[in-house]
Amino acid sequence: MDRADELKRFYLQNTPGAKMEGTLLKAPCPFCAKEKGEKPGVMVAYLDPESFFMGYFRCLNRCKPGGFTPHFARMMGIPPQNVPGHDPDREPFVQNIIFPTKNLNLELKKFRSLMTENEYNYFKGFGVSRSVVEAMKVGYNGRYLVYPYFQEDGNCYAARCVLPDREEDSFWHGDETFFSGEFRIFNRQEIERCEDGALFITDGENNLLTLKELGYPGISVPSHGDLELVSA
């Protein structure tokens, strides 16, 4: 059985209500909040063997970030050995980082609450919908857009504040430890979600938002000069 058939069988066996439409698998999203009287969104998995993103799944309602089969298995509680291509000898990548107890999580909620139609229209101007902006938790501090740089532990310790239409006017907010080096990766958690798959790497948060609007996984760094921070 080839890779495409293995992935197809994996998703069909583990996703209730899944059906194939050509090389696209569709199913009621198993991750959408099951609230009374509301139907879940549609989850899709891309199974085109010619695509770099074969095996990538996502909810069209953006209830949770998508990813590849190892991430799907973790979310569904599926044993790793049942995932196609699982290597039992692979050693997980572990960072020797002690994260601080203080973070920006509550402050970011306030910044998101300050977003108005003016800010959403700014993103709409280059094709990015409100749902993508909200999914990426972009906020506004009254003058600058606030892009949160969440770390692998799920918390945000630093955010980059950028003046709309003047990207050169920017500054970092939060813990200075997270202003530089390996921490300058926007949407960093996507790396783990894309284990055994592929993702785009771009410069500039807005370029990443455009890719997310199109349904692709990816990460970004503040500028072209920061691309060297992302190692293969």
Plain-language structure description:
- The protein folds into 2 domains: 3-82, Alpha-Beta Complex (DNA Primase, Chain A), CATH 3.90.580.10; 105-229, DNA primase DNAg catalytic core, N-terminal domain, CATH 3.90.980.
- The longest helix has 12 residues, at 3-14.
- The model has no long low-confidence stretch (mean pLDDT 92).
- It is α+β, with helices and mostly antiparallel strands and 232 residues long.
- The protein has helices at residues 3-14, 69-76, 105-113, 117-124, 130-135, 190-193, 205-213; strands at 19-21, 24-28, 42-46, 57-59, 139-140, 145-150, 156-163, 166-174, 200-203, 218-221.
- A 4-stranded antiparallel sheet has the order 1-2-3-4, with helices on one face. Strands 5-6-7-8 form a 4-stranded antiparallel sheet, covered by helices on one side. A two-stranded parallel sheet has the order 9-10.
- The protein is globular and about 55 Å long.
Task: Briefly say what this structure is.
Helix content is 24%, strand content 21%. The chain has seven helices and ten strands.
